[in-house]
Amino acid sequence: MLPGCLTLALPIIQAPMADVSTPALAAAVSESGGLDSLGIGAMTPEAARAAITETRRLTDKPFGVNVFCHRSVRPDTACMTRWLNWLKPEFERYDTLPPATLREIYPSFCDTMATCDMLAEEHPALVSFHFGLPDGAMIAVLRRVGIVLAATVTSRTEAIQATEAGVDLLIAQGYEAGGHRGIYDPHRQTISGSIPSRF
Ligand SMILES: Cc1cc2nc3c(=O)[nH]c(=O)nc-3n(C[C@H](O)[C@H](O)[C@H](O)COP(=O)(O)O)c2cc1C
Asked: Keyword annotations for this protein (predicted)?
């Protein structure tokens, strides 16, 4: 059940999609009586603030914002080289070359306070966490301004972690999830198997 401050005409929360969610989609869902989740996982704090401002221009209804809370990758040159060599035939199939190096394209919400502070100022109705949880200090900042907090969980252990962290809503996610299954620890053995050992 949704907290009272999130009373919706329709019991539908649109799944967040980084790089795909737009303010226009967010506003359309919220205007229709559901709750949108603007996926800002791939955005800088400035771009995310602009998307929130634009959504507010299009609707005065509540909407949610979704962030990525993964542990940032520590660059491992040998591992990157193995991935690039493994992928080389795929690039060759399309007459192109693999990139010289790999880089992380999604900044983690947990790495700086910048997005957290921006969200506390903008205070969307809901903030949802994906691929893990932020620390208690960040959760406290968001709670202090009355934001409802949600987290994706993919196992009982993660559900307990999120509940103990003070999250209000759990989003239970199976293995399908459009390639975006929000597991907290990618090296944990999962129902669909672990990461191949050669990587
Ligand atoms: C293109 C794409 C992008 C996604 N981006 C996010 C995201 O930014 N945050 C998130 O929590 N889930 C993300 N997901 C997962 C979806 O929110 C959702 O959990 C998944 O699509 C399963 O729901 P469905 O069965 O209704 O499609 C993404 C899914 C897709 C297909």
From this structure: Detoxification, Flavoprotein, FMN, Monooxygenase, Oxidoreductase
